[in-house]
Write a structure and sequence with these properties.
The complex is a heterodimer of chains A (413) and B (261). By secondary structure, chain A is mostly helical. Helix content of chain A is 66%, strand content 4%. Chain A has 15 helices and 5 strands. The longest helix of chain B is centred in the middle third of the chain and has 21 residues. Classes of the chains: A mainly alpha (413), B alpha/beta (261).
């Protein structure tokens, strides 16, 4: 039975998903055609990591209402799980033996390890409420990068883990969208058969092919949206929302609040671990400073700004924030400099005494600008860009009755 | 009433229930029993310990001493969600709905405890989960109709008028398929007309085979619908019996009106 208000929200979400999907499909070809290089596609793959992180954190913060300030820790756990078992790093560890396990296995292992870490962290702490939980997760988010800094024999410490294996597939389809002249199935490499170090079979290695990674992350995001969407509209999703709204009442309705919150934590963490394994593979390098507090905060901002609890909203939020952070802010100094030149204010661009020049000064205040952008956005749309359910102040009485009639009809049928 | 031979006749038995907060005895050695299918009322002046007693029954508080036996089973010290699963549902004195969820979702949350979908069923929307969702949605609509607010199914709970919020809370509690329903001041803030409607609703709930245990201040409501009454004052049981007996009880009059000069 479809309820009218829900149907409207679903229509809106379906439209957002449709637009996003078309953009995602058209993006690689357009970029290649327009710029002739795949640099932007590579960046889009990176942005996709954050979309995945935002979808996962939305389960914890948006659905269950648990403030998690250490989300990057699970991201790190996923990335390190893949990096350790898909590089030569463990050769120099006390194990003196390295593994090169396939990506397709390790991405799920990374997911489960992160989920397990979520359970281990959550079990003693989810009895805490609100602010206390935020502080504990904040601490956890600090501990994980510190561990990898301080266990250099395992993690390489500040030197990072490099030379991480790329995923490989038995075959790959190439075509105009990848800059090739015709559509063809390519098998350019040989790579080890699963579970054997001596047998080799033809396969396609992702290498540093940004298009291959782009396709992978798009598929991962689509999968995540479907699964999280299913959870949202289920017994468990309602239990999360009930706990968010009123924990005492939820418990009185028979919801085991501890295990339900633990599930939210573990599922959120598993998406983060999933994204982490992808990130390790696509970047080829994992170092502790990729998982600092700033990452946790960035993802949280994406969720809040996109619209807590709304999957379509947090995807858009993640893309917007990623664009602001990685495109608008870095280009700001040069943009401001050329603007000043156009308006005949060249003198501002010259260093003079305490004045470092406009570009330099803009560089300095770029995070202030970021902050201002965030404040402005939250003032304009405090509920987020696409909030989870627009409260319809005037729900048309007739529309409700029509819906009631539909229910009655369903009963009669 | 531990000496009672027949267990199954009583749906709930409290034996010497005591709850102490520091130096305050909120519930002091209270024993009572509720028979299946009756309306049992708990009355008393403000601060007498009525809601505390409810909280001890539903597992929100752990009793300091004493026993709570529900349906022949000792549930003393059980967790709230375990108590709900066994068949005790409740409403709250200060309405505690899930404000930013629709009325339908509020009732469907109540159904949670009788649903079977596991994580994987929901994650992959397996057919069994779909059917259960459809069935639960129908059952929730039936309950909204039962309490008379089906038109509001899509509204956020917080947007309902006060009286309808009370009804929604009852629908949500009934969704857990309770054997015993605890109503904490269901008529508080009601107009006389709404009180009459509430009494009719309680009658309909009894017809569903649910035993009702209520806290209420409004004497018209209490005397009108309950078969037996217990009066609490300063945490102590000061009277028990049929409405007419309790009404004439000297200690009850004293507790409510003060000692006459």
């Amino acid at each position: 039975m479809a309820l009218l208000q829900r149907r409207r929200m679903r229509d809106r979400d379906a439209m957002i998903y449709g637009v996003l999907l078309i953009l995602a499909l058209a993006f690689p070809a357009t970029v290649l055609y327009a710029t002739g290089s795949s640099a932007l596609i590579s960046q889009a793959g990176h942005a996709g990591t954050f979309v995945l992180l935002a979808i996962g954190l939305n389960v914890v913060v948006g659905f269950a209402g648990l403030l998690d300030l250490g989300y990057a820790a699970f991201f790190a756990i996923g990335a390190y799980t893949y990096a350790l078992f898909a590089s030569s790093q463990l050769d120099s560890s006390p194990l003196h033996h390295s593994f090169h396990l396939p990506f397709w296995l390790m991405i799920f292992v990374g997911m489960f390890v992160a989920a397990a870490a979520g359970v281990i962290l959550g079990f003693p702490t989810l009895r805490l409420r609100g602010d206390y939980l935020a502080i504990v997760t904040l601490g956890f988010g600090e501990i994980v990068p510190q561990l990898s800094y301080n266990l250099p024999q395992w993690t390489g410490g500040i030197n990072a883990i490099g030379g991480i294996d790329s995923p490989s597939l038995p075959a790959w389809i190439t075509g105009p969208w990848a800059g090739a002249n015709n559509i063809a199935i390519i098998r350019p490499d040989v790579c080890p058969v699963l579970g054997s170090s001596t047998k080799f079979a033809p396969c396609f290695s992702f290498g540093f092919d940004p298009i291959a990674f782009y396709v992978l992350i798009v598929i991962m995001i689509i999968g995540a949206v479907i699964l999280v969407g299913n959870l949202h509209r289920s017994r468990l999703g309602r239990a999360w929302m009930a706990i968010r709204e009123d924990e005492v009442a939820a418990a009185a309705m028979g919801i085991n609040t501890v295990t339900t919150k633990l599930l939210a934590f573990a599922i959120g963490a598993s998406f983060s671990g999933f994204a982490g394994a992808y990130y390790g593979a696509s970047f080829g390098l994992v170092s502790p400073d990729q998982f600092l507090f700033l990452v946790s905060v960035t993802v949280l901002v994406m969720v809040v700004l996109g619209g807590m609890g709304s999957i379509a909203g947090v995807i858009v939020g993640a893309l917007v924030i990623y664009f602001v952070l990685n495109s608008i802010l870095p280009q700001l100094p040069s943009t401001v400099e050329s603007l000043a030149n156009t308006f005949g204010l060249n003198s501002l661009n010259v260093q003079n005494g305490d004045w470092p020049g406009l570009a330099q000064e803009t560089q300095r205040v770029s995070f202030l600008v970021y902050g201002l952008i965030l404040v402005l956005m939250m003032l304009l749309r405090p509920q987020g860009i696409f909030p989870s359910r627009v409260r319809e102040q005037e729900l048309k009485h007739a529309a409700v009755q029509e819906d009631e009639a539909a229910v009655e009809a369903a009963h009669a049928g | 009433m531990s000496e009672r031979p027949v267990v199954s006749e009583n749906i709930l038995e409290l034996t010497s229930l005591t709850k102490r907060f520091g130096g305050l005895l909120a519930v002091d050695n209270v024993s009572l029993h509720i028979k299946r299918g009756e309306v049992f009322a708990l009355i008393g002046p403000n601060g007498a310990g009525k809601t505390t007693l409810f909280n001890n029954v539903t597992g929100l508080f752990q009793p300091t001493s004493g026993r709570v036996v529900f349906d022949g089973r000792d549930i003393t010290g059980s967790k709230p969600h375990e108590v709900a699963r066994l068949g005790i549902a409740r409403t709250f004195q200060n309405i505690r709905l899930f404000s930013y969820m629709s009325c339908l979702d509020n009732v469907r949350v109540g159904r949670h405890v009788r649903m079977h979908a596991k994580l994987w069923d929901s994650l992959f929307k397996l057919p069994s989960e779909r059917h259960e969702e459809e069935r639960v949605t129908q059952e929730a609509m039936d309950l909204l109709r039962f309490v008379g607010i089906a038109q509001q199914a899509n509204q956020y709970a917080r947007n309902l008028p006060y009286g309808q919020q009370r009804r929604l809370e009852i629908a949500r509690a009934l969704a857990t398929d309770p054997k015993l329903l605890l109503l904490d001041e269901p008529a508080a803030g009601f107009t006389p007309q709404e009180k009459v409607e509430l009494m009719a609703l309680v009658g309909k709930i009894l017809e569903r085979g649910v035993t009702v245990f209520l806290i209420e201040h409004d004497m018209k409501v209490v005397m009108g619908i309950s078969q037996r009454i217990v009066v609490l004052d300063h945490g102590e049981k000061i009277a028990e019996g049929a409405p007419d007996e309790v009404r004439k009880d000297a200690r009850v009059i004293e507790a409510y009106l003060g000692k006459s000069a």
